[in-house]
């Protein structure tokens, strides 16, 4: 059974509002506002990555237009070889989102298996999983990609995603292990053991529901890490071959001297998409952190209350002066 707690500060505010009898305009809480903005921006980018390639042409098609600014027929302009930037951006969005999705799912599965299941079982299984997690935690991702690049000239998006997932799940597993160690000794878990319930039911019903916010936060962080990591590797020329991602667009723009030629329409769209999607996922991650830790909500609420009080004091001072 999952633990549900109510914030005392929130309960006090609701009691005051109920007893006052005055109608007040409900203000959207900052946590809800951040979550709504993050979901809206991230959802729009995901929708563009899913549906955009269906309405654009082949991003690899070369024409004799050459480097041209945005105009009729090419809303985001063309590259030096006459390739449509909008078509490249649509396919690059799908490629980057694919890498982020694959890394997020693999990180969730690996970190939950080695960080939750191993800790719940305990004994030599926990020690072995912990040792393996520590080894994977110090495994550097960039040298591993360089070694793979030397042996695999044609790297696919799936291979890059697999390498990023292998080098990123260990940190999440360590965090989940610490939380699982704490939950494993709770009274309701011990009571379930005394009641001779099955181990899989204790894990699925008593422990995992309490780890859902942490798992969600870890997945969001893994997606951010994967997309930014792939963009960095592609910018260095170590990304996926014969595919479009935001990183490969920036790599080709750098090689084509887009900044020197003033072709802002070539490198600004992928950079802006990276920034917007990273910011949206960060807002979602911050909201999840506030859901996990009630102290963050109480701190935000107290700061908002002090801000309102300071505004009222300034207004009263202005009225007295007038």
Structure description:
- The protein has helices at residues 8-20, 30-51, 85-121, 123-137, 141-151, 157-166, 169-184, 187-194, 199-235, 246-255, 258-261, 264-292, 294-321.
- The protein has 322 residues and is mostly helical.
- The protein has a single domain, classed as Orthogonal Bundle (MetI-like fold), CATH 1.10.3720.10.
- Mean pLDDT is 78; it is low at 1-6 and 12-28.
List keywords for this structure.
single chain, 322 residues, mainly alpha, MetI-like fold, 13 helices
Task: Give a brief rundown of this model.
The protein is mostly helical. The chain has 13 helices and no strands.
**Backbone shape:** flat
Domains, number: 1
Low-confidence stretches: 1-6, 12-28
Q: Tell me which oligomeric state these chains represent.
A: single chain
Binned, the helix content reads: over 70%
Counting DSSP H or I runs of 4 or more residues, the number of helices is 13
**From the alpha-carbon coordinates, what is the Rg to the nearest angstrom?**
25 Å
CATH architecture: Orthogonal Bundle
The largest sheet, given as strand count, sense and whether it forms a barrel, is:
none
Q: Averaged pLDDT, please?
A: 78
CATH fold label: MetI-like fold
- At the fourth level of CATH, the homologous superfamily is MetI-like
**How many beta-strand runs?**
0
* Order of secondary-structure elements: HHHHHHHHHHHHH
> Kindly, what is the distance between the CA atoms of the first and last residues, rounded to a whole number of angstroms?
60 Å
**In terms of structural class, how would the helical and strand content be classed?**
mainly alpha
**Briefly, what CATH class?**
Mainly Alpha
Strand content: under 5%
